[in-house]
Model the fold of this input.
Amino acid sequence: MKRLFNPLLLASAVVLMTTNVAQAHHSFAMFDNKTFVTKTGTIVRWAFNNPHTWLYLNIKNADGSETLWSFEGAGVTGLIQRGVTGNTIKPGDTVTFMYCPLRDGRPGGAIGWVKLADGKALNLADGGCTGTEETSRKR
Amino acid sequence: MKLTISRWRLAFGTLVLALTPLLALAQGGGFGSGYGPPLKVIPAPQSFTTSEAHYQFLLTQAKGGTQHTIASVPRWDGLWVTAGNTHMDAFIEGGNFNGKVRAGVLTPAYEKAFKERWREQTEEGQVHYDRLGRCEPPGMPRFLLEPYSHEFINLPTESYLINDFGPSIRRVLIGKQHSNLYGTHSWYGDTIGFWDGDKLVLNTKYLYPADFTRWSPMTSNQFEAVEIWQLHKYPDGIERIEVQATFYDKFAFVKPVSAVYAFRHAAELAQADYRVIHWECDQTNNNFLDDKGVSNFHLPGEAGFNDGRGSTIFPELPGQTRDPIYNTALPAATSPAQSQSAPKGAKP
Done:
């Protein structure tokens, strides 16, 4: 029987509930926060730094090559209050994640949620990306 | 059964969507609002033309202030985070993101500038640019709402009000007069204060131009503040430091503006055994202002990328990476350009 409360759904809900009043130290004007994209990639670095965290991943292209993508998340103190630390995500981990892309098309954006290989869902979002699982589309 | 789960999902999603605007609007200033009873502004007891006149009035009322000892001075130990504020009420009708800019609060020049910020925020969803993106310190009054952790250390003759952004430290000299040996202003200016029982009363002058936050009005180099800090205790163990502030700015405000800000214990950070570590925005920040006046980011491999966990300028020596636990590496910023796949290996 399928679980009643999907952790990803819960993370999506928390993303919505915690990020409506943007708290970042900068504008989110560079992100298309109405477009929500889901991808899978391999973690290169989880930079758990202030003023913002950054998640760097290698993502496979159609021709088999890889591109490094960069995603901004909330600040350290905000994420620790959600139970996320600098050791929660490790290099080499394969994750599925949702993001709002950079408007200029470069490989990056604002992170929404991340789903780890063990199924655990994390809300890494700041105010720049508030989509849910249902609003995401795969690319 | 699938149908049942879908209904649950739909119900839960609907609940979230219903709650979201309520949370966002609970207190328009955001930044941790919703903790404890609603914040109420206590305006200045009478009209004053300057912050110093206001401060002197309060000092006289307190008969020169309370002389605390190290044993009696109020203690606000531990880590704190913001717990809401009312600053938007002063400038926006209704105090939330659906309101319009209040008329007659700001001077014409500052009202015009603020209306453009507000248009960007409400029509485009984002103010194009935030000065903190260039790693400027929050300054005053923004110090009062920054979401990074805060610490407040009280001694009989000094208090230290600390925000883990940068970091930013406001030093409060108890029982002193203002002094400015630099011949200019600064991000946190000069703050003097006195104790009135358990209330810490402050007067801050000599500040740089700054802002309340990026979607709120800018302030001038004549911005000054009178603040009254006090720890309040409410039922159910709720403790909140409330800061009743009156702001003076002859260039920006038609008349003084009052707001209340709040902080609560950072219980989640304490539970996680969090330690504040030194960080400087410049060391890790990749935000920049593009030629269209919009914030953007440098990415790995691009000219200008700042690799906060990269190597020092002596990579040939062992042990020079700033990521010694995971030893990750990103492409070096050698040319203006193309992002590339990250290296498979990293040098420790």
User: Anything to note?
Assistant: Residues 1-5, 17-21 of chain A have pLDDT under 50 and may be disordered.
